[in-house]
Design brief:
By secondary structure, the protein is α/β, with parallel strands linked by helices. It has 2 domains: about 100 residues, no CATH class; about 350 residues, Alkaline Phosphatase, subunit A. It is about 35% helix and about 15% strand. The strands form 5 sheets. Strands 1, 4, 5, 6, 7, 8, 11, 12 and 15 form a 9-stranded mixed sheet that branches. Strands 2-3 form a two-stranded antiparallel sheet. A two-stranded antiparallel ribbon has the order 9-10. A hairpin with a 2-residue loop joins strand 16 and strand 17. Helix 8 packs antiparallel against helix 9 and helix 11 packs parallel to helix 12. It is globular, with a radius of gyration of 25 Å. The relative contact order is 0.21.
């Protein structure tokens, strides 16, 4: 074909596509600059697949309290009489089986059983065992559902954390919060639909690294990625106007920039250009909403005391818990707190109590605060970790440096609030807290259940990526855990 004729044909096709994308972009830009033009809506539109249907949700928003490093289910939630009877003795081969171990314990000559470091008690009407290391969480027993039969294929931290937060062990996939934003959109136009915060515990310091990709959008449109809040006076970088720039000047500059980006979108048809316009507009609105969010001077003395002394320390778990409540009451769809320091390979007798002190009072205060304000009924709370810890010791038994290794075959999480039946246990491990003997729950099942509580069928919410209809729950079978759902 004549190169000149081919060029004209390309231009014709391109013009057709530009016309379509430009029209859509104009509507999007108009809605951003003046939402009243297209009418008030509960949520912003999302490019969900054709045929996607929602059903009546029990939860409107999600709070994920992610305990990074591998919380010890043996010490905190899953005591068994056999652990005490068999203390110091070799874990029976019939229990240990052929499970793959990490390189930190695979070469040990002995695997002695270590019972929980501290006693606990039966709590709530159901009588569920919770360690005395968590006295405040013990008071939540009738509000939470403890799932003791989670399992994962991941044996190391980064794949495990990535799996729990994105549904895949490999980086590059969309996070839970991004999927929720993609499926449901936002309610509060002045704050992002998904916000994440990170704190460092006093157990293992530093803890496992937390990367921003854990709240990233992966292959979903970047408008659905989470926004990380930093501690201190500037929770979001570059949000404030530079010295000498007045709000009116910033508004005028954004308007001119939006026009330029709109022209570019019409020229190229790139949806990420429209996303960029949305990001600039969100940043402008957040200049007002974020300072108000982080100003806790209006909180009552009783509320601040309930969260504990660390609540006044920016970036602490307690401070982040209070900010989480303030975000949830502003209808942010997905709030996630990452708390580092649960990787007790060594000195667990010292590290674990410290780590529990970090989170015990603030977590209980947050749940009670949500309950008191009428937010718990439609807020799904997920207290999760990437895997559990071994019942046998890592290192010499009785040594001050003794710890516990990674254990993905069984571990514990708990849920509360929107759509979840409180005051129950689900699933069970064997007499050594090592293997699941009743109602196994895979991470994919947990994800399916979270989406179900939000009124989303996990099989329907997909996104085309590399020729596949990708979903949070992956391509393997996943089930909603209906037994833990409330009426």
């Amino acid at each position: 074909m004549n190169p000149i004729e081919e060029r004209f044909l390309d231009l014709s096709r391109r013009r057709f596509l530009e016309g379509i994308s430009g029209g859509i972009g104009s509507i999007a830009l108009g809605g951003l600059l003046n939402p009243g033009l297209i009418g008030a809506a509960e949520t912003s539109p999302s490019p969900i697949p054709e045929g996607f249907k929602r059903f009546a949700p029990k939860a409107k928003r999600v709070l994920c309290l992610f305990q990074s490093g591998g919380l010890s289910h043996v010490d905190l939630f899953d005591d068994k009489p056999m652990l005490h009877e068999h203390a110091g003795k070799e874990l029976p081969p019939s229990i240990k089986g052929t499970q793959r171990l990490t390189g930190m314990t695979s070469g040990q000559s002995a695997y002695p059983v270590v019972p929980p470091l501290k006693s606990g008690k039966r709590c709530g009407k159901h009588g569920t065992w919770i360690s005395d290391l968590l006295p405040h969480i013990q008071t939540l027993a009738d509000d939470i559902c403890i799932v003791k039969s989670l399992h994962t294929e991941a044996i190391n931290h980064d794949p495990g954390i990535t799996f729990m937060n994105t549904g895949n062990q490999l980086p590059g996939y969309a996070s839970m919060g991004a999927w929720v934003s993609y499926g449901l959109g936002t309610v509060n136009e002045n704050l992002p639909a998904f916000i994440a915060m990170v704190s460092q515990g006093t157990g293992k310091n530093p803890g496992q690294p937390i990367f921003s990709r854990l709240w990233g959008s992966g292959f979903l449109p970047s408008s659905h990625q989470g926004v990380g809040l930093r501690p201190g006076k500037n929770p979001v970088l570059y949000l404030q106007n530079p010295p000498g720039v007045e709000p009116a000047q910033r508004r005028a500059a954004l308007d001119d920039l939006a026009k330029l980006n709109q022209l570019r979108a019409e020229e190229l048809g790139d949806p990420e250009t429209i996303t960029r316009i949305k990001a600039y507009e969100m940043a402008y609105r957040m200049q007002t909403s974020v300072p108000d969010l982080s100003d806790i001077s209006g909180e009552s003395v009783q509320t601040l005391e309930a969260y504990g002394p660390e609540v006044h320390k920016p970036g602490s778990y307690a401070a982040n818990c209070l900010l989480a409540r303030r975000l949830l009451e502003r209808d942010v769809r997905f709030v996630q707190l990452f708390h580092r320091g649960w990787d007790q390979h060594i000195a667990i007798a010292k590290q674990l109590p410290n780590q529990c002190r970090d989170i015990d009072q603030p977590t209980a205060a947050l749940i009670q605060d949500l309950k008191h304000r009428g937010l718990l009924d439609d807020t799904l709370v997920v207290f999760a970790t990437e895997f559990g810890r071994t019942v046998f010791s890592q290192g010499k038994l009785g040594d001050p440096g003794m710890g516990r290794d990674h254990h993905g075959r069984s571990f514990t999480v708990w849920l509360a609030g929107g759509g979840i039946k409180g005051g129950i246990e689900y699933g069970a491990t064997d007499d050594f807290c090592y293997n699941i003997v009743e109602n196994p729950v895979h991470i994919r099942d947990l994800h399916a259940t979270i989406l179900h509580c939000l009124g989303i069928d996990h099989e329907q919410m997909t996104h085309k990526f590399r020729g596949l209809n990708v979903r949070l729950t992956g391509v393997e079978e996943a089930h909603v855990v209906k037994a833990i759902l409330g009426a």
